[in-house]
Design brief:
This protein has about 290 residues and is an all-alpha fold. It contains ten helices and no strands. The longest helix is centred in the last third of the chain and has 32 residues. The chain has a domain of about 190 residues. α3 crosses α10.
Length: about 290
């Protein structure tokens, strides 16, 4: 006989029968394992991480083009927040004139970042279809998947940049408590909207806004916490570390931060999946022979 699932343990079953939230939580965790969602989250974080460094290459190239022949602008950049960027900031502080812009390097960085981002969104679509248990014949073609991924990069990427800006401003001392609270609510709302649109847009199954709202709201709140924590760590801890150890800390923190984002987003999709069917139905009695 096979080993019984942990969800069938008498104490777990009793807890699920007494509490609807506990029932939903157990079902979400069990589906996270069944759908191998953790593996998909790791792949999304992996390709997201790969897209970061080509984007930094693009940024460095653009910065080199802008700074070339402008010594006064170089001094202003050194005294700004750009000098705290990993790797690039060290070069700016030592010899900003050594940064050179190249159109070919710019194109290479953009193409590599686009490839990695497309791969991340392709995996995200596969994961959302697995969570919704969409049959393979009903899933999108390879071309349709990539078109959706390209549009997802624009929508989700733009939303994340906007929310990152909002959460980074929460640490400014010039903001009063009411202003910070307003920015926090705006960041949560934007994160939740982006997540809800992601669940609806990237999954083949027809999902309504009401169906994706619970996971999107919880995920949007956790996303905002992660973004505030990330910007706080970079601003107060990593920025004051030595160049070598600070770079290592940023790399480790970045891959962890991306993985947590992917897990939270896919857990929200799992929660949306189980909510309509979280009530345990009584098992039919076995007929006596």
């Amino acid at each position: 006989m096979g080993r019984a699932s942990w969800t069938e343990h008498p104490r777990v079953v009793s807890l699920r029968e007494r509490s609807a939230p506990a029932n939903a939580l157990v079902a979400t965790i069990d589906n996270f394992r069944t759908h191998r969602t953790g593996r998909h989250a790791a792949l999304v974080a992996h390709y997201g991480f790969l897209s970061i460094f080509p984007l930094m290459l693009v940024f460095t190239t653009v910065l080199g083009l802008v700074l070339e022949g402008h010594p006064h602008l170089q001094k202003e950049i050194i005294d700004s927040a750009f000098s705290r960027l990993p790797i690039v900031g060290t070069q700016l502080a030592t010899d900003p004139s050594a940064l050179h812009g190249s159109v070919w390097v710019l194109l290479l960085g953009l193409l590599t970042a686009l490839w990695a981002s497309l791969r991340a969104f392709n995996v995200l679509q596969t994961s959302l279809d697995d969570i919704a248990e969409v049959p393979m014949p009903q899933r999108r073609t390879l071309v349709a998947i990539r078109v959706r991924s390209l549009l997802g990069i624009v929508v989700v990427g733009g939303g994340q940049v906007a929310t990152a800006f909002l959460t980074s401003t929460l640490g400014f001392d010039s903001w009063n408590p009411f202003g910070r609270a307003g920015l926090g609510v705006a960041a949560i709302a934007m994160n939740a909207t982006v997540l809800a649109a992601t669940y609806r847009w990237l999954c083949v199954a027809p999902l309504s806004w009401r169906q994706v709202a619970p996971g999107a709201l919880i995920g949007g709140f956790v996303f905002s916490l992660l973004q505030v924590a990330g910007t706080t760590v970079v601003a107060r801890a990593i920025a004051h570390a030595s160049p070598v150890y600070g770079t290592f800390a940023i790399l480790i923190g970045l891959i962890t931060w991306l993985n947590l984002h992917a897990i939270v987003a896919l857990l929200g999709a799992e929660l949306n999946r189980v909510l309509p069917a979280t009530r345990l139905e009584p098992q039919p009695a076995t007929a006596a022979s």
